[in-house]
Amino acid sequence: MCISGRYCLLALYILIALILLILSFVCIGGWIASEKLLRVTEKWYAVTLNVIGVTEDTVTLPRKVETAYDGTYGISWANDYAVLGEIVASDNQTVTRRIIKTTQPLSAGMSVDWNIFVYSGDPENTLGLAYENLRISSQLGPLPVYFVPGQRTTWVLLVHGFHATGEEGLRVLPTLAEMGFPVMLMFYRNDSGAPHSPDHFYHLGDTEWQDIESGVRYALEHGAQDVVLYGWSMGGCIVETFMHRSSNVARVRGVILDAPTLDWHEAIDVQMHK
Predict the structure, then answer these.
(1) Which end of the chain has fewer CB within 10 Å, C or N?
(2) Is residue 200 helix, strand or coil?
């Protein structure tokens, strides 16, 4: 209970000041989060390594979080790349992995970039698959698309993930091409060579799905009877948004989601604490 009107007024001013201070922190935090997570950058992820040693079928790299993961990964340098497989030896300082394929011999001391998407480049130079470099119409302007022809009337659209490129789809392309599917490796707004969104921010699928609809429309107008949508990470979220909003959902024969981002609250919290 206030002793006097003066003290009540002072308490009210203090309360308002605290509320404004809290709101300021929330706004600043939101701005930092949007800049860190949503602002499009040319190179968001880069891990450069110096090759420590090479044998006929292995390469030894510095031990990092990335190089110590199990699985298949890539390294690239200049216009060349190598695909790396299982870990055959490791210690506190190094990791030695099997070389599955390399376009040029590796040598100790050379600098390479770690590639979590395995391949880099286009379907022909990287995988020996003939393709067309399309420009399809979209809401914001022409979108680049790598199109690999096939015999089937079901087309597959590959939708890359957060801060990735259409190259993410190259690792599944040989299998799809061998099965006869025509494949579109989609690039969407804010990708290199694609139109920018007006604010140059990722919208986490809320607008990007319209670019996938442009791809589906192109496929249906050029011989596809139906489509399969294949999305990674944020690409999975884009596919799911398409499935909820598009007028072409009935023409989708199947959906494949690889590690899709379906809970943005959790994803943003993880990114903000990195």
Answers:
(1) N
(2) coil
